[in-house]
Amino acid sequence: MTQSLGENSATRTASPEGPTEAGGGVQTSSPAPRPRRGRRTDWRKVFEITVLSAPAIIVFLAFVIFPVFLAAYYGFFKWKGYGPPTEFVGIDNYLTIFQDTAFHEALLHNGYIVVLSLILQGPAAVALALLLNQKIRGRSIIRVLIFVPYVISEVIVGTGWSLMLQSAGAVNDLLEKLGLGFLAVDWLSDPKIALWSLMIIISWKYIGFAVILFLAGLQSIPEELSEAASIDGASYWQIQRTITLPLLGPTLRIWAFLSIIGSLQLFDLVYIIWGQYISATAGTSTMATYMVLNGRLAGNFGYGNAVAVVLFVISLVIALVYQRYVLRRDTEGALTEGKK
Amino acid sequence: MATLLVAPTKSSQTLRRAPKVAWGSPMTYVIAFLFVGICIAPVLYIIVGGFRTNAQITNSPSGLPSPWVIDNYVSVLVSDVFWRQVANSAVAGILTTVGVVALGLMVSFVLARYDFKLNGAMYSLFAAGLMFPMTVAITPLYILIRDLGLMNTIGGIVLPQIAFALPTTIIILVPFLRAIPKEIEEAASIDGASRIGFFFRMVVPLSLPGVITVGILAFVASWNSYMLPLFILNDELSYTLPLGVQAFASQYSVDTARVLAFTSLSMIPALIFFSLFERRIVGGLTGAVKG
Questions:
Q1: Once rounded to an integer, what is the mean pLDDT over residues B234-260?
Q2: Residues with Cβ < 8 Å from B112, sequence gap 6 or more?
Q3: pTM of the entire predicted model
Q4: How many distinct structural domains can be found in chain A?
Q5: What is the distance in angstroms between the Cα of B211 and the nearest Cα belonging to chain A?
Q6: Does some domain include residue A36?
Q7: Cys-Cys link to A187, which of A123, A197, B2, B225 (CB 3.0-4.6 A)?
C-alpha cells in the first residue's frame, strides 16, 4: 500500500490539475484557460462528484463490502438465519471449523487444485501461446475457438462433462473403441481419480484464458529484440528462453495470481458435477462447497458465515503475500496501484 | 496503461506481417489443430448429442447421430419452461448490463477527470473489491437480499451482480476516460458546455469502445452466473437458464438427448455475443488484468 501512496502523489503532481491541490506549486504555468475556481464552482464540483459517484458507491458498499462485515459479525453466533442472531458463541464456530476433518480435507483439496492448476496450465499455456504467436493462417479463428470453453457457463461445462465422464459415458466408450479400454475408469466417483478428473475439466475450461492472456503479453514485446538477437546468431529456443520468457514475466505473475485466487474460491464446477453430498466422498470438496453444505443447506447460518470468513482470510493472506513478494517487482500490481 | 494494452492487440497484429523465420510449419499446424480440437470437442459432443436419440446414445455413447433427429431440439424450443428461463436470463442480463454501464461510467468519469482529495481512496476502494469474490459474500448476501424482500426476484440477483461487476468496469473505463484529451474538454467548456454537458455529449460517445467491452463482460457474466441465482432464486418460475439447465438435467436424467439439446440451446446467446465481440472482450480482459 505504501507503493500506492507514492503512486498517487506522483500522478497528482503530474496531472494538469495538480496546482489546485499543491497550492500553486511549480506547475502554475499550466496554460489551460480554466474557469475561475471560486467558492461557487467548488460547491458545484462537490455536487457533481457526489451525484455521479454516489449510486455506484452505495451499491458497492451495500452489496460487496457490507456483506463481508456481516459475515464477520454473524460468524460469532449460533444462528439458524431467522430473526436477529442472539446466541453469542464467541469463537466456537471457528474452533469447530479448525477441528473438523471435513474442512481439513476441503482445504487440502483446495491446496491441490491451486498447485495443480499452476503446474498443468502454466507451461502448456506458455507453449501454446508461443506456438500461436507465430505467423500462421487462421490465427484469429483459432483464438476464438480456444476461448469458447472459457465463455460457456460452468453449468454447461459441468453438465456436459459429467455426462461424458459417466462410467458408461462417451469418454470410456471412445477409449474402448480406440483399443485403450484398460484406461477406462470410474472418472467421477473413484476418490483416487475424481480430483484428477476435476483438474482435467478445470484445465480445459480455463487454459484458453491463459493462452489469450499470454498471447497479448507476447504481442506487447517489441519484435526488434528478437530480430536483433537472431541477427546475432541466437537460435529460436535461445531467443524464447532469454528474451521472450523473462519479458512475459509480469503477465505470467498476474495470471498465476488470478489462478490461485480462482482455485481457492472454486465452487460452481464441483457443486454442479458432484452435487451436494458426493463431493466429500469423491474427494473433490472445496472450502466453498463445505461452506454451502454446512452453512445454508444445514441451516447453520452462523457457522456458514464463519467458514466464509476463514475462506476470505486465507485468500486475502495469500493474495497479500503474493502481492508483496511476487508482484512487487513488476511496475504495476492489480491492487496496489492501477492509477495510470 | 490499459488503454495502451487494449489497442496494441490490433495494431501489432498488422505490424507482425514482417517476414519471419518459417519454423516447423506443419508441426505448428498439427499442434494448433489438436489443441483447438480438444477445446471444441466437448462442446460439439453436447451440440451433436442433441441430434441423437437416447437409444443411440446408450448403444454407442461416443458415436455420431444416425439418423439425425431434431425432435429433442424441437421439444425444448416449444416448451414454455425454456422460454421463460431465457426471458428471465435476458432480463437479468440486460438490467445488469445497463446498471453496470450507467453506474460504472458515472463513477469512472469522476475518478478519471475530477481532482479531489478522496480520489485515490475511492479508486482503491473499488480496486480492493477485486479481493471480495462473490463466494465469500454469498451467505450474508443471501440474508441481506432476503431481509430486503427480494428473494425470487430478478432485482435480487441484478443488484449484487452490478455491485460485483463494478471493480472490473471501473478498472477498464478509467484509463479510457483519462485518455480523452484535455483540449476537447476545454473546447467544450469554451463553447458553453457544463461539465455534465461534456459528460453526455463527449464522454459517453468517446468511451463507447470501453463501454461495449464492459457491457459484454457484464452480460456474459450475468448470463452464466450460477452461485447467486442458486441462493436467491428458489421458485422455479424465477429460474434463470443455468439453474434451469441443472434442474432439467436432474429432472430428465434418463433423457440424456433432451438434456444435451437443452444445454446446447442455452449456450447460444453467450457464444453469439462472444464471437461478435471477441476482440473487444479479449482486449478488455487483458487490459484489465495488466493495467
A1: 88
A2: B173, B174, B175, B176, B177, B178
A3: 0.82
A4: 1
A5: 16
A6: no
A7: A197
